[in-house]
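User: Hi! I'm working on a homework problem where we have to compare a predicted structure to a textbook description. Could you give me the structure for the chain below?
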Amino acid sequence: MAEAKLALNLEQVFSPDDRADQARRVSEALLKQASQDGDSALRVFGLCKAAEADILDGERSTALEKVQTAKSLAEENFLAEGSAVVKYVSARIYSKDAGDEESLDQALDFAFQAHGSFQKMGPRKAEAASMLLLGDIHGLLKQEDTAVRCHKEALTAFKELGDHRFCASARHKICKDYMAKGQHLRAAQACQRAIASYQAAGEADQALGDCWIALAEAQSQATDLPRVLESIAEARRIFAGHQDVASEAKAMGILVKAYMQNNSPAEAVDVAKQVVTLFHEAGDHRAEGQALLSLAKLLLPLDHTKAERLASTAMGFMQAFGMGEGIEECKAVKARCEHVRAATEVEAAVWKHRDFMHVPRSLVIDPGCRGRLQNEFTEFAKVGLALEHKAMVS
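Assistant: Happy to help. Predicted structure tokens:
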């Protein structure tokens, strides 16, 4: 009975969800139960789940403190399962430092240790979850072949366990692996299977929306615009239902890129304007400033005057929030707009005064120059022939 309870509580630690609020709810429930029962193992699990929530919120130092407390508690009470969970969560924490190779090496070491421990102890879901994490870390290390292999091995285990939610998560990760390898058709197929798994699990949350976005990305690489539109529409419907404005805007950003790849800049600009409106109506002015800057960059080759006005407005938002990097980007866009404006004025001036300037005609910026030269030569030839004929008659 005690072993069954331990296995059930251990299972709560392992979930495919990557949302801080969900992880925090689980951690609070585990810690409350641990306090009521005086159960050290449950307290270790609750602390580790709370650390996961912290790292998902970007609170790395707080997460490490909780893991250290859990580690000490597990060692004091000789809790093998607790020690393995500590290693698993430590791997997750260090894997968030994606740009730091040393941290990723530490994450890989912790994940290997956790996987080895779970293999010996027998909790199949914990073993599969740690293999899934190994695949994630190999992917961050740009070892795509190993990442695919780990994710597929984890998927096999989850299929045997009949866990549709974890199957969906594994297939979603396999899709990303194939995208990293440039295998867009296989990525799309993996993503479609992931969506089917989410639907089989009765899920319609943000994870499913993220999967639709991944499918749209794969489809856009195959220049399949109608399917991209369908996938983005599904993603937006899910995110709008959860009032997740940031994720909905992310989906629309994929559509902007797809339109640009399809040589449809006007449609891309229209969607980018909708993103600005989305953030404005949500009252997220920081994100609205970023969206205005993105729109300015899109408009620059089409209408430098509007682009400059948008960049100025975006810079006002960013100055209000002290967004130094964004301010510099706005300045760079405004400088490019000024350069285009100056170049346009010079071209117009050269054309207007072309007959009075000592500029070789071949260097004058004149889109219709070749046609006019041909016409002038033809007229000259006609005059020459007429004069020659008149001379012969005389």
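For your comparison, note the following. The chain has two domains: 1-162, 264-383. Residues 324-352 form the longest helix (29 residues). Good luck with the assignment!
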